[in-house]
Design brief:
- Helices cover about 35% and strands about 25% of the residues.
- A seven-stranded mixed sheet has the order 2-6-5-3-4-9-8, with helices on both faces. Strands 20-21-24-25-26-19-27 form a seven-stranded antiparallel sheet. It has a five-stranded mixed sheet with strand order 11-10-12-13-14, with helices on both faces.
- It has 18 helices and 27 strands.
- The protein has three domains: about 5-190, 3-Layer(aba) Sandwich (Alpha-D-Glucose-1,6-Bisphosphate, Chain A, domain 3), CATH 3.40.120; about 195-420, Alpha-D-Glucose-1,6-Bisphosphate, Chain A, domain 3, CATH 3.40.120; about 420-555, Alpha-D-phosphohexomutase, C-terminal domain (TATA-Binding Protein).
- By secondary structure, the protein is α/β, with parallel strands linked by helices.
- Strand 15 (about 325-330), helix 12 and strand 16 (about 350) form a beta-alpha-beta unit.
- It binds 1-O-phosphono-alpha-D-glucopyranose and zinc ion.
- 1-O-phosphono-alpha-D-glucopyranose binds near residues 20, 330, 372 and 376.
- Zinc ion binds near residues 118 and 289.
């Protein structure tokens, strides 16, 4: 019997504004009647019938709590909205990079939907998220996310095929007949195939495999979505010991872990690495787009350095050979990659926070490598940042330099000797009252006009402000202007203090304070805290942060 299409009346929610990366809310919020359905229908309405009807859409998520339910609802809504085909990962699982790769590989004409709250904890009491990606495989740009929000405020009904029997456990295609006369195809694919083949095209797996015979890995998936991908790549393809990949079962609540690869939340990886039994450690976040790289004995590679090192060693990676386009980083990211670009006479773009701003630059062939300080690194092989790709990039660079018996630490130290070091830290003050977050920002913002040329002294070091503004970005490809992207205080020697409010939190405000400064004095290379302290003190003084928030210490330091 053809499946009936039901039009269900609904009322709008006022809080469905996508943030830095899609809509993220507590699971309990998503569990409200029609909340998910409203957002999905608003997305279809915003993207437009011309794209959705008869289109091909890719769907998958990181397997967190509510993933299964959302997959089923979205498939039923796709069928009802005239989508011709949905390609979904088996059991609803696809990492964020895998969705991007699959959209591109299959030329999915209606783009894709990713179900994840990224690095935010999962489970019934924690977070869920949903975002729309375009046909280029990248996150929807502002004009689409704003249109989704606008639609979400006026929505009156959504369409669904309530009687559809959705089974995503078995690989294969099923054709459904819809009462309208249309046909709908549900294609369930292996979650890893497309992504793994792509990695094999980008890297020289034989070279990495032979290098890994004498190089011990510790890959920590933090019970997020990357487990199956890491096992396929590191164990099956690259023949590493099965023990090289840990926490590799995607769990609905990430086993209680906070799947954010940094020194705070992936401390267990750091502790194991400190024992000195592994040469290389990596961790990824819940949906697999973030990465943290560690060397032997827990040597930490700052994401800004990771980006710069990959940039400086691009020729070790087959994919990049002979390609000459530029680099990009988000504004708060440390400026290490800028120095590589300058040396190689390449362009380096500075964009607002969020991967969506890199897409146009990649589509226009202006950049092929980019990153963010928030443990995001990636290239134009897809339109999302890519955790496993970053680990493979490092291994390829190490393998290519094996003759010199390189280690992660040596590669980084050689880089510093050549380029100097960008010192960087980010202080996060999480779950601050929203009003206090706003007050902090306005306290700094009010001073912007008068900060220029002011001098500050802390710990015996003097700084003079040379620029103070609220960062805005004009996209060089489509000319769109994005304003108010972070308060910047730049000193005359290039050191920077930046304040932003997070756009990914699900409640309250998270204040981010970033400090970036540079030195080519080798005697300082291991003295991070000494170098950064004066700027942090100046930042706290200008912002009056302690008094306004009542917080004497940040909740996370990266
Ligand atoms: C954070 C990071 C940002 C990243 C985003 C999605 O956004 O700072 O670099 O692109 O998560 O992973 P924020 O919470 O700062 O808005
Ligand atoms: Zn993520």
């Amino acid at each position: 019997m053809p499946l009936s299409v039901q039009t269900v009346s609904t009322s709008a929610f006022s809080d469905q504004k996508p943030g830095t990366s899609g809509l993220r809310k507590k699971v309990k919020v998503f569990q409200q009647t029609n909340y998910l359905e409203n957002f999905v229908q608003s997305t279809f309405n915003a993207v437009g019938e011309a794209t959705i009807r008869n289109g091909h859409l890719v769907l998958g998520g990181d397997g967190r709590f509510f993933n299964n339910h959302a997959i089923e609802v979205i498939i039923k809504m796709c069928a009802a909205n005239g989508v011709q085909k949905v390609t979904v990962g088996q059991n609803g699982i696809l990492s964020t990079p895998a969705v991007s790769a699959t959209i591109r590989k299959l030329n999915a004409s209606a783009g894709g939907i990713i179900l994840t709250a990224s690095h935010n904890p999962g489970g019934p009491e924690n977070d869920f998220g949903i975002k729309y990606n375009m046909t280029n495989g990248g996150p929807a740009p502002e004009r689409i996310t704003s249109a989704i929000f606008a639609e979400s405020k006026i929505i009156t009904d959504y369409k669904i095929c309530p009687d559809m029997d959705v089974d995503v456990t078995k690989i294969g295609s099923t054709i459904f007949e819809i009462a309208s006369g249309a046909k709908f195809e549900l294609e369930v694919v292996d979650s890893c195939d497309v992504y793994v083949s792509l990695m094999k095209e980008i890297f020289n797996f034989e070279q990495i495999e032979s290098f890994l015979k004498n190089f011990k890995l510790n890959i920590d998936c933090l019970n997020g979505v990357t487990g199956p991908y890491a096992k396929r790549i590191f164990v099956t393809e690259l023949k590493c010991d099965v023990k090289s990949v840990v926490n590799s079962e995607p769990l609905e609540d990430f086993g209680g872990l906070h799947p954010d690869p940094n020194l705070t939340y992936a401390k267990s990886l750091l502790d194991v690495m400190k024992l000195g039994q592994h040469d290389f450690g990596a961790a990824f976040d819940g949906d697999g787009d973030r990465n943290m790289i560690l060397g032997k004995s827990g040597f930490f590679v700052n994401p800004n350095d990771s980006l710069a090192v990959i940039a400086a060693n691009q020729d070790s990676i087959p994919y990049f050979k002979g390609k000459s386009s530029g680099f990009a980083r988000s504004m708060p990211t440390g400026a290490a990659v800028d120095l590589v670009a300058a040396k190689e006479q390449k362009k380096c773009f500075e964009v607002p926070t969020g991967w969506k701003f890199f897409g146009n630059l990649m589509d226009a062939g202006l950049i092929n490598l980019c990153g963010e300080e928030s443990f995001g690194t990636g290239s134009d092989h897809i339109r999302e940042k890519d955790g496993i790709w970053a680990a493979l990039a490092w291994l390829q660079i190490l393998a290519d330099q094996n003759a010199e018996r390189q280690s992660v630490e040596k590669v980084v130290r050689n880089h510093w000797s050549e380029f100097g070091r960008n010192f960087f830290t980010r202080y996060d003050y999480e779950e601050v009252e929203s009003a206090a977050g706003a007050k902090l920002m306005s306290t700094v913002e009010k001073q912007l006009a008068t900060l220029k040329d002011q001098q500050f002294e802390a710990c015996g070091v003097n700084y003079t402000v040379s620029l103070a503004d609220n960062f805005s970005y004009k996209d060089p490809v489509d000319g769109s202007l994005t304003e108010k992207q972070g308060l910047r205080i730049v000193m005359s020697d290039g050191s920077r203090i930046i304040f932003r409010l997070s756009g990914t939190g699900s409640s309250g405000a998270t204040i981010r304070l970033y400090v970036d400064c540079y030195s080519n004095d080798a005697a300082l290379f291991d003295k991070d805290s000494q170098v950064l302290k004066p700027l942090i003190e100046i930042a706290l003084k200008i912002s009056d942060l302690v008094a306004i928030t009542g917080r004497t210490d940040p909740s996370v330091i990266t």
